[in-house]
Fold this protein.
Amino acid sequence: MPDQPTVTTPAHRHTQSFLNAECARLAIQPGLGLAGFMVVLPIAALLAIGLGGPENSVVILSPLVTFALPAMTMVAFWWEDWPGSSLRPGWSALVDTLLIVVAGVVLAALGQIIVGRPDLSSLFDPTPGPGDTPLFPAALPLGLTAFTAMLQLTLVWEGWPFKRLHRLPAGIAALTVSWLIALAVHYAAYDLPAPAESGLTGQNGPFSREDIAVLLALCGSWQVWIFLVWRGWPIHGLQQRWLRILLGNLLVVGGTALTYAIVCGAAEVEPPVAIAAAAGFNAAGLVVGLLFEGAFRPRLSPPWERAVTLLTSAAGGALVFAVLLAYAETLTWSAANAEAWVGHVCVNSLGLAVILHVAVCHRWPFDDKTDTPQPEASTQPRQPRT
């Protein structure tokens, strides 16, 4: 595995073949991103409303997709798309997607055991009865914590120390650690009410589900901002890995705490609204940072590019949030609410579709024009900073 994630590796540390392929990809942006958007939108729409309407989709698919996200991160960024990477592009995308779907269902079943008891029928039932163990919304903090931890290990910790292993055990180790972190948060911090006939196991932690969800959503916003929209700037060029990891964690954790204090403390924004707004920014940041990756780079100097990408992500997130919330408030909700559906659409539908298309499927069916080799940072000499 390379010393740094590909997305945050400075240009002077990439191989010439990688840079040539990247230049070829940048030359066809933003057309490449627009073409990919036509692939992403149907997937996002299917996940958002395809299971009998918005409410059924959020109640059933939101937990399943949330638990699949850490596995998708493992396949995309740790396993380098194995096992699909050994197959032809079309079959590669299909095999990797099926693997992620199966992993999501298995991990969701495990999450159900943790918050209550085994009840496979409730995994796919939008209206669970007395004694059933519904995943929504009780198990969402568990899955979101595992996904946030997996992204932190992948982007901020740069895969350290697991990248010393082969990619397959390294990915499994990272997924295991992310789940251990999620379990620690669940048992030490989660306040889980358990009505008598719910099938859930109650806990008396210091933080409610919404408190944890706000923190995780804001943490995801800082991860997306620094490591995807800004590609690791301002710390990606530092030579020492330990310093990059330290400063990256300070930025993400400190920024999350500060934003939480401002949003939920000083501004007194209601948690559901804060979660949905942060999810909107996260979705827009993924679109700008991954789908339209580098669209502004050939046209703007680095400071202006960073400013434009951040403003585009913020404006796009605000627009997505406003439009989706306005539509959701026209609907009737019982098991879920408008803000929960907005968060589901942004992260579990649009966000998953973007990562799946770009990072897992390598923009298939456009992969023949955009596929790029991995940087060989471990075999090339380090160049001094300028």
